[in-house]
TrEMBL record:
Family that this chain belongs to: Belongs to the alpha-acetolactate decarboxylase family.
Domain of life: Bacteria
Record SUPFAM superfamilies: AF0104/ALDC/Ptd012-like (SSF117856)
Gene Ontology MF terms: acetolactate decarboxylase activity
Lineage: Bacteria, Bacillati, Bacillota, Bacilli, Lactobacillales
Reaction(s) catalysed by this chain's protein: (2S)-2-acetolactate + H(+) = (R)-acetoin + CO2
This protein's name: Alpha-acetolactate decarboxylase
Top EC category: lyase
């Protein structure tokens, strides 16, 4: 059985619950590859080979070695690839089409590949302080960065449409350059010399921060939830 473990929900972030509720140490018990954000939406986190990296909104990248660092939302799994990717070049627009034969539309899956990127367009959420705004409010004013000719690793998850709310439906991707100097949430990309893998999951483990009073008492505008997630996540589905 292959499991994708998720702490918190994207709906929580839409509901202004940005306080950290799991440590990096606890999270790493459930995998060695993943993504998330830190308390107050402080940047974009990517986890590769058990190492945690944070992209800050000023463009800098930190190697997180303090495993007491808290995250409000994260997804993680143990890297056990299902198949090698059947292409050597791809961009965000064609990613789903190139994987159509894998029939991902109704399952959770993860992609991880190294490539040479002629274009990499990312955004990085800036740190917020209490009283916290919603993810949608933050998304209307967040730094974006774009570079050309960069090599690195892209990883992320595909979630079925019916899970839009707990997480983001479609592709949710993060990037880390080889020199660990450029990272963030991927809005668009174009890649060649792609080498990597696809992993599919037969179990989705949703973990809730039940000891957190803010989470237990929050209320959500469900009518606007999906539209808000789409607006805040950006990128292409």
């Amino acid at each position: 059985m292959t499991s994708l473990y998720q702490h918190g929900t994207l709906a929580m972030l839409m509901g202004k619950q940005l306080q950290g509720t799991i440590t990096a140490a606890e999270l790493l018990k459930h995998g060695d590859t993943g993504m998330g954000t830190l308390t107050g939406l402080n940047g974009e986190v990517i986890i590769l080979e058990g190492q945690v990296y944070q992209a800050q909104s000023d463009g800098r990248v930190n190697h997180i070695t303090d495993l007491d660092t808290l995250l409000p939302f994260a997804s993680i799994h143990f890297y056990k690839p299902t198949q090698t990717l059947p292409f050597d070049q791809v961009d965000f627009e064609t990613l789903s089409d190139k994987l159509k034969s894998a029939q991902l539309q109704n399952i959770f899956s993860s992609i991880k590949f190294h490539a040479d990127f002629s274009r990499m367009h990312i955004r990085i959420a800036p740190q917020q302080v209490p009283p916290f705004p919603s993810l949608l409010e933050v998304a209307t004013n967040q730094p974006e960065f774009e570079v050309a000719d960069i090599s690195g690793t892209l990883m992320g998850y595909y979630a079925p449409e019916i899970f839009n709310g707990p997480t983001a439906a479609g592709w949710h991707l993060h990037f880390l350059s080889d020199d660990k100097s450029f990272s963030g949430h991927v809005l668009d990309f174009s890649a060649i010399n792609v080498t990597g893998t696809l992993q599919v999951f037969d179990e989705f483990v949703q973990h809730f921060p039940i000891e957190n009073a803010g989470f237990r008492g929050m209320s959500l505008d469900l009518d606007g939830l999906h539209a808000g997630i789409e607006a805040s996540e950006g990128g292409k589905k």
